[in-house]
Design goal:
The chain is α/β, with parallel strands linked by helices. The chain has helices at about 5-10, 30-40, 50-60, 85-95, 115-125, 135-145, 170-180, 195-200, 210-215, 215-230; strands spanning about 15-20, 45-50, 65-70, 100, 130-135, 150, 185, 205-210. About 40% of the residues are buried.
Length: about 230
Amino acid sequence: MNKNEVLQRIKGGLIVSCQALNTEPLYSSKIMGRMAFAAKEGGAVGIRCNSPSDIAEIKRTVDLPVIALYKVDYPDSEVYITPTMKEIDALKEVGADIIALDATKRIRPNQQTLEDFFEKVKQKYPNQLFMADTSCYEEGLKAKELGFDIVGTTMSGYTEYTKGIDLPNYNLMKKYVETLGLPIVAEGGIWTPEQLKAALDLGVWTAVVGTAITRPREITRRFVNYIEANH
């Protein structure tokens, strides 16, 4: 698929995030592959997933476009979503359709700025689709300026300077849609079909739902917390 074909396949639909870290019960590339298959059968138009092994398994299992990321913790940075060229290379090697990376204003590992990092990434992989995971409007503007193809609201509420903001962040989605002129991905805090529809009605290109669909521990906890709070 070329860039435009990938973008057209995900337009107007639901992307399901199939991820499990090694601290979670469903941690397994095989399980993530089956999760992606279930999402496809349910009508998902794409999958967002983490790590080369999961991505490879998911791409063997379904023929949907994949938004790929690679979560790695480095001791000198808060940035963990595809933080260095090493992770970009690994995602490219397994055939990521779209590569997502943290595009917040925080300093990356080795004291690298997003500007310096992404300039090198674009030089190395000029034909790759890249998604900016942002937390605020200023970061979306910067992502457009730097040449990202897609901008998402993924990190809203997860950076120190956006903590406590209401999710889903419809205001940020709306502002992006109205001003950036790029495909916008609504991501973060979408728990219900009604919230998903509200996001799509704003004119976003596509929307990602993860926890509400693919993380049974957190789904269970949400129900239990509600019972306990209202008993």
